[in-house]
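Hey, quick one: can you model this chain's 3D structure?
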Amino acid sequence: MPGENLTRDEARERAALLSVDGYEVSLDLRSAVGDETGEGPRTFRSVTTIRFRCNEPGASSFADLIAPSVTSVSLNGKDLDPGQVFDGSRILLDDLAGENELVVDAQCAYSRTGEGLHRFVDPEDGEIYLYTQYEPADSRRVFANFEQPDLKAPFRFEVRAPEGWTVWSNGVGEQTDGVWRFAETKPISTYITCVVAGPYHYTTDSYSRTFADGTTLEIPLGALCRKGLAPYFDSDDVFLVTKQGLDFFHDHVDYPYPFGKYDQAFVPEYNLGAMENPGLVTFREEFIFRGKVTKASYESRANVILHEMAHMWFGDLVTMEWWDDLWLKESFSDFMGAFALVGATRFEDGWITFANRRKAWAYRADQLPSTHPITADIRDLQDAKLNFDGITYAKGASVLKQLVAYVGQDAFLEGARRYFKRNAYGNTRLGDLLSVLEETSGRDMGSWARSWLQTAGVNSLTPQVLLDADGRVDELAVVQEAAESHPELRPHRVAVGLYRRSPEGALARYARAEVDVDGARTVVGELAGAEAPELVLVNDDDLTYCKIRFDETSLAALREHLGSMTDPLARALCWSALWNMTRDALLPAREFVEIVLRFAGRESDIGVLQMLHAWADSALVHYVAPAWRETGGRLLAEGALRELRAAEPGSEPQLAWARFFATVASAPEELRLLRGLLEGTEKVEGLEVDQELRWTFLEPLAAHGVADEAVLAAELARDDTASGKRHQVRCLAARPSEAVKAQAWAQLVESDALSNALVEATIAGFAQPSQRELLAPYAPKYFAAIERVWEERSIQIGMDVVRGLFPALQDSPGTLEATDAWLAAHEGAAPALRRLVLEARDDLARALRAQAVANG
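Sure thing. Here's the predicted structure for all 856 residues.
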């Protein structure tokens, strides 16, 4: 990794010197099939022609390429010695002319880590599937280029592929004499070019739109997946959401979709959720559901489809100049994806999911020592890789939701329209967007941006209520606080809701006011004289980004009546606030678990219910007092089983409770029930134990020593697929054996034989909360190994190992001291590596603080 980094300064110097007229890229992928036992990396031929200009003739620069070998390099007709100009990641270019042509013939390597051109062999039928994934800078693993977002250019791809394969790229393709040739793209950045190749299952549809001026836009639609997943592929629903999204964006952005066709590829062993390559969006294939899932899974998929579609404008048409302004595409797409989800699809409650799930990601990220402003300081590509985080996505989207409340939806959308028309196919910075928003809103965007985009940290908003002699509100104020490390108090447009129980017992809102909170204390005059509330909900309707706090009266009401709140969004906000209080050691984790046990069974929103399950499990594993873990686990398992049996047969809550029961089951009778459900000797009315649920039940059985290697081998024989293999690998690593843990550790740390997907599965199985003592010897081994792993492995695998193997389950002051000792001894380690360790340290320190409150 060290020689592959690119700094912001280098990128700026190169952009000032060069402009690119076009690329022609020829890939020969016929080597993808054949002998699986060959020595060394499997490679393919990549020939790239780049035509570019230099505004200082005679100057020097470089092109980017990561490849095992280069056959030839030609600059302006002159052959260069690859051994002299290529160092493994860069090609030196001296004595440039005003107009230049660079031709590079290289042997590039297929990837097994999801970076570059990934090669996957399907264990089910032996078929081979290829796809590319580049963000932020891995197209240089496939073809020579200038790998930075502001050197845009048109691309022409041609691909030679094995017989019987189909190949897709950003443009429309045609096959002639065994060669696939693709239409030239519009000017786009290198990281959003794409190639997908293999015997994929492919379905088609089309979209048509007639505009007010009488013109009609026709967009061919396609959706593809591995043949083994074809029986489960509900492409009709994918196309439905796609068409609804295209209608929504055409209604709101006033710029017709500019990239021709619209294919969506669901690919194996994908590191991300999805990627916005224009004309060929790629998704992780787990969005194709092999078993029964809840509405929340379909909503999540629809949201991702619409997020990537938003990128066609926010990121692809108009692209940030450098990764500092990554928010210009990711924050906008996260917001617009949710906006379109609610406005155009059947998922009308999408803002509840946004408030409960997406914001939880943001709140965690914004309290880490690595938190950063939404407009970040990205020094190099390693910084960029780690900044695809909860700040850039979810906090940025939350702030944009606040911006819409601040300037108004019409002004916001009109600003976006002008932004696209002025900057189409170009690159922008923060100021380019703010200037159009100032035009359309009449507001001073500079001070707003300084507070919201250029400072880090999350504010807390707490209500203060004073009652008069008649028991009515004399004064209601909102108190704003900030962390010492990030003291900015921001302007917030918020709604404040007052809630009381009705005669029927429902906790419902009876008064609401919107107010601009500014400074440390803001009085909400409009609510003076209202009846005394049982609950005051600051940030009702979730207009701003903040941590909601409660006064003692409100907290008491939630402890007793949270399940009777009638509004699902308000209820979700209260759950989120209670979880933040638990993480901040303001509410004992045991109490949070008890509130979940009391009220989660009455939760009507399935996505919120599943989030509560995840939070309750996290509270049990990390935040409760260690002495209460066994009791808490028993209570959660008993509660989950009770709700499982009480749920409507065949319902989504029944499925959610079944999965949660498997997560927390540990007692012999609980494990016997899981085994009985697998073997058919036990039944829960209406619960269909499909293949995915079977694997869910098998993991705790394996972790507690009930399902051995033979049982897992038999299950793989039953489900001999790529998905089944991942599940089996996870379950194998979960077994409670010293030999098992040693083997898993060696596979992860001492070898690079596992693919990215199997690394992920092995890590997930390795760290079992019930095996803290068994895992204790690996804490010192972790600190001894991580710097070497970071240096030797790809950045994706390095991130997975450093995050996934941190000894968080060894939650003692000793582990915190060991972490501090490593940080002190490795001040010169890669900043990105130190950031990952600092984040893990912060999570551990937070857990210890919460445990101390629980013990108190």
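One thing worth noting: The two ends are 46 Å apart (CA to CA).
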